[in-house]
Write a structure and sequence with these properties.
With 317 residues, the chain is mostly helical. Helix content is 77%, strand content 0%. 37% of the residues are buried.
């Protein structure tokens, strides 16, 4: 295991030497590639698909993103693998990449999100070669960029991709199983609530354990910061599936074929409102509520808006 990690560190140091030798000529490009795994671009893409192009495809992407977040968070808390620069002080990540590199390292959250969104798009539109190869390129760019900027080891990104691929096949079967018989959506949602409760209990116990050793081991992730990150992902996952089941049972909005001005304007308006929602909610809630609860509420409302609130508006229109 140590030999494998040493090889991975050597690989990161090689990329670091390349960055230094080229005076950071490609830093901007790979920081841009990292944005393909951030929140804004994937959510905008999913919204466009779900609201205006193909509702089933959008649902498939949302399921992949929600369940990938669950697996990613669980593995991060369980493995507790440190970031590369904490494993070896010779690793010097790009300073611009540090704010988005909080928490534990394994597996890569950016790569997991990219695989869930772009990889799932390649899976759904596999017969379209342009879409397939473009989306696979996006996933690989995000994965390599996390190594290039020095915030993840190769094992972090490779495992994220493998998990994402397995989930794609599993979720494809899951959605077919749900659609095959009435009431199965409620069964799935009930199981999801139990999974969420388990994750919250596990997070609480893990944070209590980490708090005992945090002061003596400074390379351990701050338990309060871990709560902040995990609660946000739990809220987002709950928002996705709560909105999904409510839309499925009470709204059942349809997407008209073709592209017209009304559809384009409605999708653009929905995304603009989404951005405003994400920016304003944090400033409002953080004044009154604890940081980790604020993260959960904002993430829940953001996902709920995508899956239920704006589809309700579209139905009325």
């Amino acid at each position: 295991m140590f030999e494998t990690m040493d090889l991975q560190i050597q690989y990161l140091l090689l990329l670091q030497q390349f960055r230094q030798a080229t005076h950071g000529a490609l830093d901007g490009f790979f920081m841009g590639a990292t944005w393909l795994g951030e929140v804004i671009i994937p959510l905008s893409f999913i919204s466009i698909i779900y609201w205006g192009i193909n509702k089933k495809a959008g649902t498939f992407l949302l399921f992949n993103l929600g369940l990938t977040l669950y697996v990613n968070v669980f593995l991060k808390m369980t493995a507790c693998i440190k970031r590369p620069w904490l494993i070896d002080s010779r690793v010097c990540p790009l300073e611009k990449a540090m704010p988005a590199a909080d928490g534990y390292s394994f597996p890569s959250g950016h790569t997991a999100g990219a695989t869930a969104v772009w990889g799932s798009s390649a899976f759904w539109w596999w017969n379209n070669k342009i879409v397939r190869y473009t989306m696979i390129t996006f996933v690989l760019l995000v994965a390599f960029s996390r190594n290039y900027v020095g915030v993840h080891t190769p094992q972090d990104v490779i495992v994220s991709i493998l998990i994402g691929i397995c989930l794609m096949f599993g979720i494809d079967r899951l959605l077919k199983w749900i659609d095959a018989k009435d009431g199965r959506d409620l069964i799935f949602y009930s199981v999801l609530l139990l999974m969420t409760a388990f994750l919250c209990i596990y997070l609480h116990l893990k944070c209590c354990m980490q708090m005992e050793i945090y002061d003596s081991l400074k390379d351990v992730v701050n338990p309060l910061e871990m709560k902040h990150g995990v609660y946000g992902k739990i809220g987002f996952m709950l928002g996705i599936f709560t909105g999904w089941i409510m839309e499925r049972r009470f709204i059942k909005f349809d997407i008209q074929d073709g592209i017209n001005l009304k559809k384009v304007l409605s999708v653009i308006s929905g995304i603009v409102i989404l951005y405003i929602l994400m920016m304003c909610l944090n400033k409002i809630f953080v004044i009154f509520i604890a940081k980790h609860i604020t993260a959960a509420i904002i993430a829940f409302l953001t996902a709920f808006y995508i899956t239920f609130l704006y589809p309700l508006v579209l139905k009325r229109l």
